# Entry
Amino acid sequence: MDILRISYDGLETLQKDLFLDIVCFFRWESIDDAMEILDACGFYPKIEIEVLRQKALITTTDDKFDMHDLVQELGLYIVRGEHPKNPEKHGRVWNNEEISNMCYGNSTMGQAH
# Structure
């Protein structure tokens, strides 16, 4: 993970955000669909995606975003950060169970772990 983290740490802020969004939401998704969403969010990601490809953080397969499983694990680890058991404090939430718990009040919001 430390070696993979070096590639991530060398990214600019916008590239880091884009990488984490792809990790959490767009792996195995259509590149065209993801690009439309990312454009709408103000990323204009074409150049940044090329940087992520050059650093071997993402690949494309059958017109979909992909990456090595360990690269995805790195991204998910980064998002979990200092609050691995408190998804309410994550910058991105991708796990259906965590989303449900947050929406329906079964979450641990505000509780220390």
